[in-house]
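Pilot study result, target chain (382 residues):
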Amino acid sequence: MLSHNISTLMAVAVSIIFIILNIKKLFCKSTRKSIWKHLIINGIFIILISIFFYIPLVEHKSATEYAAFSRGADKVGFLEQRIYPYQLIFGKNQLEWAYKLSENKINDSMSFSLGLPIIVALLLTPVTLTKIEKRYKSLYLVTLCTGLFFAWMTTTAFPWNVVPLVPSVIQFPWRLLFISTFTFSIIAGVNIYITVSDISVKNIYIVLLAIMICAGEFIANTIVFNTEFDVDYLYKNDKLYGEQCAAYEYLPKKAYDNLNYISERSSNVVILEGKADILNEHKEGNTMSFKITNNDRVSLELPYIYYLGYEIKMNEKNIEYTESENGFIKIDIPKNENENTNINIIYKGTKIEKIAYVVSIISALGFIAYIIFINYKNKKNS
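Predicted structure:
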């Protein structure tokens, strides 16, 4: 849940299907008590431990619109990201000939091959089916079919063109391989285990050596030695481009729509409405201070993207802030009654965010204590 929300969404969909297929076990007298107990206890812990992320997410999403939630891929873009079936078998290097011969556009952004170890292991399925225990056969087949179905959906062979509702929220159909590789890994492990159970230890070493040799190409293309990566651009880059970085998706939509403005904007306070003199501006990271003089009700845009969690004080008193049309923080200052109006800004995070962190930490510690208690109880009963 904390690694990738889209993957979580797909996992939830598969889990719901799995529950429907095994719905009888939820209400069977011999299993329902144990299953419901574990579902409820683990479900509560999962929610509470991950609440430090999801509560602030909901809080920020309710405050404004973000590019990540408004820039979902359309059906045309989704279909363009499909892969050809043979890309599931052959790696990127083996398909150079296909790229040259094909008149159609081939998605060559990465290798979509399932990998030789899994492919070889899947070929053992007919033999495994005859040896697998009857009580596990249905689970085995459901797992296998789930992997095959999701792999099919990533390819041009799946009739996405006639499907009225395309899951464009996942952006790329090849993300469905997340489910396929997970299920195929289980099937591959079972197939290899059953197959080698009748093989001597000496022959197992030969099989492992063969797999390592075949995997050498993938390892060689992944691991790089004696290479220094230039990361200076992370600190010196002062230009923004629409497709430069996926992180732009987490800008407020108004800011995302004004990348040129962000690129050209100075780090100073901008007067949006009214007149005033801005003096003694000092900005360092997430803190800033300045003075306002000669103002008669003025609206200011601060050099900070609009996110919740900033504390802004005017003459030591907290004031509220809103979002400007450019996606920055906007504050309204009343007519200056004193000679100077002092503004101080610091990022502290929201109160809800801090409470969520405390809840998650306590829940994580509680989960550890729960596991220790269960293990102690099981040992005592045994």
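One observation from the pilot: Residues 67-212 form one domain. A full batch analysis is planned for the follow-on phase.
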